[in-house]
Known about the structure:
Oligomer: single chain
Order of helices and strands: EHHHEHHHEEHEHEEHHHHHHHHH
Strand order of the largest sheet: 3-4-7-5-6
Low-confidence stretches: 333-338
Shape: globular
Distance between the termini: 19 Å
Number of strands: 7
Strand content: 5-15%
Helix content: 40-55%
Amino acid sequence: xxxxxxxxxxxxxxxxxxxxxxxxxxxxxxxxxxxxxxxxxxxxxxxxxxxxxxxxxxxxxxxxxxxxxxxxxxxxxxxxxxxxxxxxxxxxxxxxxxxxxxxxxxxxxxxxxxxxxxxxxxxxxxxxxxxxxxxxxxxxxxxxxxxxxxxxxxxxxxxxxxxxxxxxxxxxxxxxxxxxxxxxxxxxxxxxxxxxxxxxxxxxxxxxxxxxxxxxxxxxxxxxxxxxxxxxxxxxxxxxxxxxxxxxxxxxxxxxxxxxxxxxxxxxxxxxxxxxxxxxxxxxxxxxxxxxxxxxxxxxxxxxxxxxxxxxxxxxxxxxxxxxxxxxxxxxxxxxxx
Length: 338
């Protein structure tokens, strides 16, 4: 997706393990051209390139793919080693079972289970020391990794029917529709992803060379691999992205383009934990962040381009979205992506 940004909640979560070591995290951020004030602002949005640099900074500094959230580090290279083994699997079920065996060798803290007893595949993840993952970020991250990786192995974006989580509804639930594009349930017995068993027999389509590129680009393809995401939320956002920023189509027009009624569109979006207004607001928020940080435009110009009646309305909306005014956000002096 264009102009994609990430909640500063996730930026702080990525840095959690670094902060526990007592390192000067703000100095490390500055060394990667990342503004510490942006990361600490509760409602701020972090551009994609900066967010990717946060991951790589944490991985490299800690030499830990689990980012300081387990009793022992999972040294950099474990993920690549696992991928190098499973890329030779016959089909998706083979990939998952071999990956589970690898994880059991990597860590005693993280347990992955494959349950085929029901009508669907249930892929579950358990953290045996949840006190080391107080905001459940590692749980969310590893479930995302498994969903994206195994789908990438068969060249398909695996459509999730639903997901369950042991933790209660989080404050950042609004982000879940991009991370887990399905109906999510909380306060459940397991952390699990559910999808059709039809995927299990699909063959691996990737080569060892493609895997090397995938790992080299990590976590980029894990975070933003959306080309084959057929969720209604993503379809609506892509339609809006293709429109002129200040002239977004209304919900009736979007429903018509998707060959359904406005009522059906609303119902399907609600089932995914979304709505047309949320998608529209989040797109304009991400576009505003991009314009503020990467383009030499005045606040009035940005307001006009995004279709606001006047700059004051835009400023109020932006502060509601991010917690700071557009001018304050710009004054944090984010640098362009390299």
